[in-house]
Structure formats: C-alpha cells, structure tokens
Input
Amino acid sequence: MSVVRFLVAVAILSFASPAFAARCGGDFNTFIANFSAEAQSAGVSAGTISQALSGVTLDPAVLAFDRRQRYTFNKSFEQYVSTRVGAGRINGGRTMLQRHAALLSKIEQQYGVPRQILVAIWGLETDFGKGDMGKLPVIRTLATLAHDCRRTELFQGELMAALKIVERGDLTLRDLVGAFAGEIGQTQFLPSSYIKYGVDFDGDGRVDLRHSTADVLASTANLLKTSGFKMGQPYDEGSANFDAMREWNRAVIYRKTIGYYADKLMGR
Output
C-alpha cells in the first residue's frame, strides 16, 4: 500500500510541514550534519541523533521508486475494488470484528468511529498486520528523500518526526522500518501522523503501531475523529464522513473502497 500512503504524504504534508533550514542536495554527509544540528535545536537528544543518523547513507532504490510513481489511480472504482476486496479479505475482516469485539467497542465509545471502518482500513493497508508493513529502514528512507530537492521540506518534517518516535521510546531503530515513503505499522502511519495521532491504548507507556492491535486501531480512530468523523452518520461519497476521511487518504477511489469494504463486513 505504499503508493496509496504516499498520496497521503504528498497531499497532507505539502501544506502542513513546518519550515526546515537544512539545504537539500549537495554532499549527503554535509546535509546530515546540518540536519542533525537542527534536530538537536528542536529538542532531540544527541544520543538519539547519533544512534539514528551516524553512518546513514543514501538509498538509490528509494529515489528510483519515488521517481517512477504516478500519483493517480488509473483504474475505475469497479476495477480497483475487485482487486482489493474479495471473499477472503471480507471473511478475514469479519473474523477480526469477532476476535476484537470488546476492544472495538471501547474504541467506538471513546472515539466515535465505527468498527467496520477501522477494520476495513486495517485490512486494506496490511491484511490486519499480517501483510507487508515494509522492510526499509525509515530513517534512511526519509533522509534520502529529505536530501532530494523535490520535496525536501516535506520529508525533512517526516525525518524529524521519525527521530521523535525513537526519542519517545515508541519504537527502537530496529523496529522503525516501513515502506518507500517512510510509512510505519499496521495501518501505515507516516511519522508525523504517528506523533500527532498515536495513542497508547494498551497502557504500556508507549505508542506501538507495529505490534499493538489496541494502539493501531485506537490511533486510526483518533485520526478520523480529529478529522471530524461522526458515529452513526453515513460515510458514502458526498457525506461529511467521506470528507473527513480525506485526512486518511485524499483519493476518492480509495475512500470509496474503504466504505464498500466496511459495508461488506456488516453484510450490506
């Protein structure tokens, strides 16, 4: 799902990123040194910076993938949904609804986001955490994209957020792996969204969006609630809830697929 999540990165962060001063391009090590100084000024400890950025190198595969992306869907909704929502995924989602019924009830009560929407997103992104969450070191991926001058401010913001995830103790560097735009975890949060919306719902003192089902689902609900999603209201195209899901993904075809899958989970 890296293409879909990358759409979110470009759409959201293009207007939400803070300004960063590290100059893009040129010598990569110089860029990292300048960014490291900026991160320390932003409150990231020298230990975290050293641990994360010492010896980091450019990843040519990330740049190659980034340059061949096309940030549009070239299929109709019917074509796209037929490849994403089949009988196996519907049955798997219904199993998750049953297995996590008590947890989903608590999340619904606290955040006002229906369980079928959360399970639909979870299933579409990583097959309920069983699928591919990405295997690339997030720090290296984001440092590569931040150094590249095409969207340096956007990805410098993401790199700073990734350092803060490590600084907070949410994930170790070993667990900070993801997809080609730095997406992390079972519902593929970008680091800035991880920081902004992440919830420690299991109460273990950290936000773990790779291993904790409770944190994953509650954080996804928190994102949608903060964006204006309302319980008990329709979520089909044209509705206020459909618009609220733009914070999750701006692509209409993908939001329609979430709604279609959610309805199938409920037998509609």
Strands lie at 136-137, 177-178. The radius of gyration is 18 Å.
